[in-house]
Write a structure and sequence with these properties.
The structure is a homodimer. By secondary structure, chain A is an alpha/beta fold. The first copy, chain A, is about 40% helix and about 20% strand. Chain A has a single domain, classed as Ribokinase (UDP-N-acetylmuramoyl-L-alanine:D-glutamate ligase). Chain A is built from 12 helices and 14 strands. In chain A, a hairpin with a 5-residue loop joins strand 7 and strand 8. In chain A, helix 7 crosses helix 8 and helix 8 packs across helix 9. The longest helix of chain A has 16 residues. The mean pLDDT of chain A is about 95.
Chain lengths: ~325, ~325
């Protein structure tokens, strides 16, 4: 196995986040399910945006947030995702490269605009996402460069890739190349409703060994196994995948391998502002810990640390150096 | 004098803010003067942006920030400023209308892109702005609708309007209409270097009574009168304008009228994050106090409160309801 050029390469829906603080009434009036990610078409995007308050904008996308976090810890990271060659696409490309991430996916020259997620943040810090995929729908297997995939120690994929029409083929192509090169493949289950849409396919990916590591939050885990019994679901997860990491908000996380289960507490915070990116940044810290061979417990602490940073401000990208945060916390970097 | 349709109407350079945290070295390497606003051309904008880290983006522009703040207190506000009919211009128009501000300036169909300010925020919370005016340069006197101007109790203008080529004519046109309708005209001096570029013209506006109220920070006041003696400068200011309000950062503000001088302390903060918009939001609170006839001292407190809100997070637009903040602080709304 050749030395890895990247520690982690992520593939996901490249989305520009348009974030706004709002109240519960806004969610109710627009028929939104709090805490979820709903796919919306252009007309609904326009209608939601028209009704939304003034926004804070930044680049987002689940796997992209994770990859930016990994780069922020000081690891070598790459991202594959599709934007359009438009103004917002230009901002997106700037931001991911400026975060120190290798990014070479060719932007779409025509077709729909760069995708946007309209994110409503309620007073309790919960985020409700409405995603117009836009150009992210144009991600195709030919966007996957075999040499780049084979050069990453871990390939990280988001479950949301099952939504655009050809991205799952890109996903499977990447996973196959990665395993062919002796690399690891990680998957995040993304969202409880996403799991509900693609449950059988996700279980198939796990049971056939297409993925080696799965990230899920409690709601996604419960959705995957159609149960509200956490321990029963965790037991199933341990059978289905080599390594499963389940985040439980303020209760921390559980790392479930075939050797056993390790629980790691959440990092303390001063104020919960916006949960957008909590799971993404947890995955960043955990994957960083893995590639540094820090052990599951330290990996869990690194994940908790990054998640705590991102939920204390608006937006899903870290505002400070995660490397320095980890050093201050005495965690291995 | 007819009843006012608006409490305050602002005119300024409509700019999209691209904010990033950085270090002193970045400023030094790029020859930036910390704390100032520098005008940049398209090539320099591209070069600075290329070197900048991942950004947080939101609508900005000095007078626009003030007007959004005034609307946030619950007053009736309008804004005049020029964007292009491009993607970022669309975001800009959404944001200002979503803040409850009347905005009807026709966007430019061609010419330069919507203007952007690249704002570097250092660890001490200070902001250094690099502004590419773009479409803001296209603001012309015909963008000034006499009926709208005459319908505002106070017309608020930014000194930065002296930079684009025709905006000062729009400024003077608006001031003349406002006075013809028996309204008040306020000016912010904007920036010490801006004052240095247009000192004689600004003094002329004041001495000829084109403006009734002037906002300045200490550096701008010192630049205006070419002195480092605050008391001497304040004395000059009192001679030159009916009402002068000077902000002094953590030392609060001084309201200087021909009747006397009132000092109001700053509002306490937990953490200084980003000073972008501090002066703009101070002006918002103060003008709101004026239109509510709250008295200079309460107006100063309202200004201090809004400034304190905006410097505790990234970006120059308030993240919470200023009306609720004022209510909680027991100030008149």
């Amino acid at each position: 196995m050749a030395d890895a050029k990247y520690d982690v390469l992520g593939i996901g829906n490249a989305l520009f986040d348009v974030l706004v603080r709002t109240d519960e009434k806004f969610l109710a009036n627009h028929g939104m399910t709090k805490g979820s990610m709903a796919l919306i078409d252009e007309a609904r995007a326009a209608s939601i945006y028209r009704d939304m308050g003034p926004a804070t904008m930044m680049s987002g996308g689940s796997a992209a947030n994770t990859i930016v976090g990994i780069a922020g810890f000081g690891a070598r990271a790459a991202y594959v995702g599709k934007v359009k060659q438009d103004e917002i696409g230009g901002l997106y490309i700037h931001d991911i490269r400026a975060a120190g991430v290798a990014f070479d996916t060719r932007p779409a020259a025509d077709g729909p605009a760069t995708g946007c997620s309209y994110i409503l943040v309620t007073g309790d810090g919960e985020r409700t996402m409405n995603t117009y995929l836009g150009a992210a729908q144009e991600l195709v297997p030919s966007d996957i460069d075999p040499a780049e995939i084979a050069a990453a120690q871990i390939v990280y994929l988001e479950g949301y890739l099952w939504d655009p029409k050809d991205a799952k083929d890109a996903f499977v192509k990447a996973a196959t190349i990665a395993h062919g090169a002796g690399r690891q493949v990680a998957l995040t289950l993304s969202d409880a409703f996403c799991v509900d849409r693609y449950r059988d396919e996700f279980l198939d990916l796990m049971r056939k060994g297409t993925v080696d590591l799965v990230f899920a939050n409690e709601a996604e885990l419960h959705s995957l196994y159609r149960t509200s019994d956490f321990d029963a679901a965790l037991k199933e997860l341990r059978k289905d995948v080599k390594l499963g990491v389940v985040t439980r908000s303020e209760k921390g996380c559980v790392v479930a391998s075939r050797d056993g289960v390790v629980a790691v507490p959440a990092s303390p915070i001063n104020e919960l502002v916006d949960t957008t990116g909590a799971g993404d940044l947890f995955a960043a810290g955990f994957l960083f810990g893995l590639v540094r061979n820090a052990g599951y417990e330290n990996a869990g602490h690194l994940g908790a640390l990054a998640a705590a940073e991102v939920i204390q401000h608006i937006g899903a990208r870290p505002q400070v150096s995660l490397k320095e945060l980890a050093q201050q916390a005495g965690l291995p970097v």
